Amino acid sequence: MRVQAARRAGVGLVVMAAAHDHPPLVLGIETSCDETGIALVRGQELLTDVTASSMDEHSRFGGIVPEVASRAHLEAFGPTLSAAVERAGVGLGDIDAVAVTSGPGLVGSLTVGVAAAKSLALALGVPLYGVNHILGHVAVDVLVDGPFPEEFLGLVVSGGHSSLLHVRDIATDVVELGQTLDDAAGEAFDKVGRLLGLPYPGGPHVDKLAQQGDPAAFAFPRGLSRPKDMAAHAYDFSFSGLKTAVARVVEGFTDRGEEVPAADVAASFSEAVADVLVTKTLAACERHDVGCVVIGGGFSANSRLRELAAQRFGEAGIDVRIPPIRYCTDNGAMIAALGSAVVAAGLPASEFDITIDSQMPLTRVLATA
Amino acid sequence: MTSTLLCLDTSDGAAVAVLRDGQTLAAARSDDPRRHVEHLAPLIVGCLDTAGITAADLTAIAVGTGPAPFTGLRVGLVTARTFAQARGLPIHGVSSLDAIAADALAEQDVEDVLVVTDARRREVYWGRYRRDEANVVHAVAGPGVDTAAQVATDHADLVEAGQVTGRGLALYPADLAGGVVSDDERAADAVVDASRLGHLALMRARAGVAQPTEALYLRRPDVHVPGRATGR
Ligand SMILES: [Zn+2]
A90: how many CB neighbours lie within 10 A of its CB? Predict the structure, then answer.
C-alpha cells in the first residue's frame, strides 16, 4: 500500500519532485480540542504521528474544560514537536510546509496551535496552511488506504460534528450534502452515557454496554427519516429527539422503581444512531451514483457503526474505507495529510494574519484573515 | 559576538522589538488586547524587515510571561518558545509587570511604583516594585490578582503618592488614582515596551539569573464545560 501511495504522490507532484527529488515534507499541527497532535507526511506517506492528550484531566469534570485544554496545549506543544521530528528521523530544517487546524474547534485550543504554526513557519521560512479540521478527518484515510477514487462520500462523525460530504478532490472540490441540525452523533452518546450513569466520555462505555444488549428491545426514533423530512433534509441528521426518547424510557423505569435495562437501552440507541447514519449515506451513494464511502471522526470507532457499514455497504457493492481508530480520533496526521493534499493541489499559502475560526464552514478548506 | 534579540509581549496588546547589542533596530505594536493570534506574527515579520535581518540572524528570544488574560498570553509564549525551538536559540522569560515597572521608574525621581494591569472580571494584576542603589528594579510584593479596591487598601502609601502605573489606573481611577484619570500618557498606555523587556532579559542573563517561560496565570482554570463539545 505504501509503495502504491508513494508512486501516486510522485505523479501528482512533478514540479515539486524536480526541486526536491521527492514530495514535500509537510508538518501537521492539530489542537482543536484536547489533543495536541503533530505529524509528518511526505506526499501520501505518513512518517510519524505523535499525540499528547489532556483527556485524563477532563474526565473528572464530565466534559472538556476549555482552559485546562488550552494550558495543556501550551505545555505539550514543544515536547510533542521534538518527539515528532525525532521519531521521523528528520530535522526541523527539512520541513517544507506547515499545516495547522484553523477551525472548527475550541477558541483557546485553536489559538495555541495556530500561533505555534505561524511561528514555526516564520522561523523556518516555509509556507503556512491553515486548514479545516473536518476535512482532515477524511483526508487522513489516504495515508492508510492509499489514493482516493475519483469521487467518494465522506461521513465525518464525532463528538463535535456529523457531516456527509461529496468529495471529488479533498483540497479543491468538496460539497456538503448534509449535517446534524442539533447534536453530533458522539455528543448524543456522551449524553446517553450520562443518562445511564456511565463515566465520561460516554461513547466507548455505551458502545461496550450495547454489545451485551438487544438492539431491538426498544423502537427508538430515526431522526429526519419520515417522508416529509426526507424532502428537505434527506442527508441531514438529528439526534436530539432520539436522546429525549432514551431519557423518557430511562425515566419510566426509574419512576416505576424498576431497574433500567441499561444494556438493552444502549444497544437499541446505538442501533438507531448507526442505522440512520448508514441509511442516509447509502441513499446519498445511490442518488449521486458513488461507489465509495470514507468514514472518519472519533465516532467511527463505534463498533455497531463499523459492523452495519461493512454489512450494508457490502451488500450494495459499495467500498467502505474506515481508518484504524487512532486515525479517527483527532491527530496531527489528518492535518498533515490535508496540508499535503493542499500543497499538491497548488493552493496559495495562508498569510501570517489568518485568524482562527471556531465555526469554520466546510465550504472552506483554507483559513482567511 | 553580536547579539540579536527578538522581544515579544502579549500581556495586553501585542509588542515586538528587535535589539542588536542592546540597540533597538525595530519596534512595532498593536493596541488590540484581543487579536494577538492575528497580529503578532505580522508584527514580527515587519520588525525583521525593518531591522533588515532574517529569522536566521537572531541569537536569542525574550518573552513576557504575564500575568495577563490567558488566551493572549499563550500566543506570545507559544510563539516565542516555538521560534526558539525551531532555530535552536536560548529563550528568556520576563514578567510583563517587571517590564512596566522598569519603564516607569527609568524616567522618574521616585524609587517605588505600583503596577496595575487589566485582569478583566473587575480585577487587576498588580506588583509592587523598588529601584535599588545600583539602579536595578526589584519586585517587593506580588505579582497578584485582586480587586482594585483591595490593592488600593494594601498599597495606600503609593496610591496616595500617585506612584501607580499601568492600565488599571485608567480602568479604576476611583480606587487607584484618587478619582482622577491620569493624563500621564505612559500610564494610560497599556502595551508593554518590548525593548525595555528585552533589556531586562539581557541584564538578567548577564547576571546568570534563570529566566523560565512559565505562564503567570495567577488564577485556576474555570471549570466550565461547554454544552457542545467540538473537535474530536
Ligand atoms: Zn475531530
Answer: 17
Query: Please, what sign has the CA dihedral across residues B151, B155, B158, B161?
Result: positive
Q: Which of A8, A74, A280, A122 shows the shortest CA–CA distance to B214?
A: A74
Joined together, the cell numbers standing for residue A357 give: 475560526
> What is the per-residue pLDDT across A324-352, written as a single tens digit (0 to 9) for each?
999 999 999 999 999 999 999 999 999 99
Give pTM, 2 decimals: 0.92
Total of domains in chain B: 2
* Residue A111 contacts B, CB cutoff 8 Å: yes
Are B231 and A119 an interchain contact pair (Cβ–Cβ within 8 Å)? no
Of B220, B194, B146, B212, the closest CA to residue B13 belongs to: B194
Cross-chain residue pair B38–A355, CB shorter than 8 Å: yes
Q: Which residues contact B100 (CB under 8 A, 6 or more apart)?
A: B115, B117, B165, B166, B192
Q: Which candidate, A223, A312, A230, places its Cα nearest to that of A273?
A: A223
Does residue B144 share a domain with residue B29?
no
Collapse the DSSP code of B113 into the 3-class scheme (helix H, G, I; strand E, B; otherwise coil) and give the result.
strand
Residues of B in contact with A160 (CB under 8 A): 228-232
What is the tens place of the pLDDT at every residue in A295-329? 999 999 999 999 999 999 999 999 999 999 999 99
Based on the domain organization, do B11 and B73 belong to the same domain? Answer: yes
Nearest residue to B92 via CA among B19, B6, B18, B29: B6
β partners of residue A130? A100
**Residues counted in chain B:** 232
Closest to B229 (Cβ–Cβ): which among A35, A160, A358? A160
Kindly state the helix (H) or strand (E) to which residue A18 belongs, with its residue range: helix A14-20
Quick one: A254 exposed, middle or buried, by C-beta within 10 A (0-12, 13-18, 19+)?
Answer: exposed
**ipTM value > 0.85:** yes
| Domains in chain A with CATH codes | 11-140+331-344 (3.30.420.40), 148-325 (3.30.420.40)
A347 within 8 A of A174, measured Cβ to Cβ: no
Closest CA to A143 of A306, A332, A310: A332
- Are A355 and B80 an interchain contact pair (Cβ–Cβ within 8 Å)? no
CA distance A300 to A329: 8
- Nearest-CA neighbor of A156 among A145, A147, A165? A165
The answer to whether the CB atoms of A356 and B37 lie below 8 A apart is: yes
Q: What residues contact residue A273 under an 8 Å CB cut-off, 6+ apart?
A: A185, A188, A189, A239, A242, A302, A304, A305
Backbone CA torsion sign across A279, A285, A288, A293 = positive
More confident residue, B53 or A54: B53
CB pairs under 8 A between A and B: 156
Nearest CA in chain A to B72: A111
Q: Are B77 and A74 an interchain contact pair (Cβ–Cβ within 8 Å)?
A: yes
Interfacial A residues in 301-320 facing B (CB < 8 Å) = none
Q: How close, in Å, is residue A350 to chain B by CA atoms?
A: 12
Alpha carbons A361 and B9: distance in angstroms, whole number: 32
Asked if B13 and B73 sit in the same domain, the reply is yes
Q: Name the phi and psi angles at B34, rounded to 5.
A: -125, -20
Same domain assignment for residues B37 and B143? no
